[in-house]
Write a structure and sequence with these properties.
Rossmann fold; alpha/beta; 20% strand; 36% helix; 10 helices
């Protein structure tokens, strides 16, 4: 393990030296013109793990700061890679976004809140480098499906919450975001006994009953909800056998209680992958998703 971490750190610093426009403090030089896809930009080291981000820039330079879209990969918290979103973030530049995909530490080796901490770090990195990336730090949107959707929602509701460490990386920079979109996301209230057998608990909380009780509360998005949270776009298939649709329904109910801004679309017959199970319904949701992004990018 120690040799593996050393190798990761050495690779990280090699990337730090060769990545376009990067300087020793981890911020990006504003004198360098960024365009196209830039991969493996170092953003910080947490617990010996070097973390990186991929960013896609529009080909045409804008005189005004652009909105940013951070797309978070899924994979059940145990697999997946930020590179899987490269095509998606490049397409998002056509909507005028500077778009990014960040890596995060995976379970079961890393428990909650490691994954969330890494996404919050990616948000702070974007904000700290807003001038160099030509983005508006107040117009950062998050998007994800499944595990990525959970992390997007959690980052959204904890942007103004205390109790999360910044690990000394970009201190004083907050992780608030402007809007959140999530599909088929496990965003239930894990304090409820109905989720005792959720595989997500074993992966992220471990098996210690006392620790699990505390972590279950901490990993429940509804616990953090308040009027200062961003607007949400949520979608779910009513036949999802991987992530129960009740999770989205319950979270939406909590949002409705505080009259929060939310768009929720439930697809009849939709399974975990809407695109594979109900392509027509998925297309409708996708068009509404794009409209949501465009609306909150302004």
């Amino acid at each position: 393990m120690r040799n593996t971490q050393l190798s990761r750190v050495l690779t990280y610093f090699t990337l730090l030296l060769i990545t376009v426009g990067l300087v020793s403090c981890g911020s990006v030089s504003s004198t360098k013109r960024l365009s196209g896809l830039v991969t493996d930009i170092p953003i910080g080291i947490i617990d010996g793990v070097p973390l990186t981000i991929n960013i896609a820039f529009p080909e045409k330079r804008s005189q005004k700061p652009r909105p940013a879209l951070l797309i978070i990969h899924g994979g059940g918290f145990v697999s997946g890679n930020k590179d899987s979103k490269n095509n998606q973030i490049q397409k998002a530049t056509r909507l005028g976004f500077v778009a990014a995909s960040a890596m995060y530490r995976l379970a079961p080796e890393y428990k909650f809140p490691a994954q969330l901490d890494d996404i919050k770090l990616a948000i702070r990195h974007l904000k700290a480098n807003a001038e160099a990336y030509n983005i508006d730090p107040d117009r950062i949107l998050l998007s994800g499906a499944s595990a990525g959707g959970y992390l997007a929602v959690m980052a959204g509701v904890t942007g103004n919450a205390e109790g999360f460490s910044d690990y000394g990386l970009y201190p004083g920079v907050d992780s608030r975001v402007h809007a959140v979109a999530a599909q088929s996301a496990p965003i239930g209230d894990f304090r409820l006994s109905k989720y005792d057998d959720s595989p997500m608990l074993e992966r992220l909380a471990g098996s210690d009953p006392k620790a699990t009780t505390q972590v279950r509360a901490a990993m429940s998005p509804a616990r953090y909800l308040d009027a200062g949270d961003p607007p949400f776009f949520l979608s779910h298939g009513d036949q999802d056998s991987v992530v129960p649709v009740d999770m989205s329904r319950e979270f939406v109910a909590e949002l409705d209680k505080i009259e929060h801004n939310v768009e929720y679309y439930e697809v009849k017959g939709g399974e975990h992958s809407l695109k594979k199970s109900t392509p027509e319904g998925a297309q409708v949701v996708y068009q509404r998703y794009l409209a949501f992004l465009v609306k909150w990018a302004k």
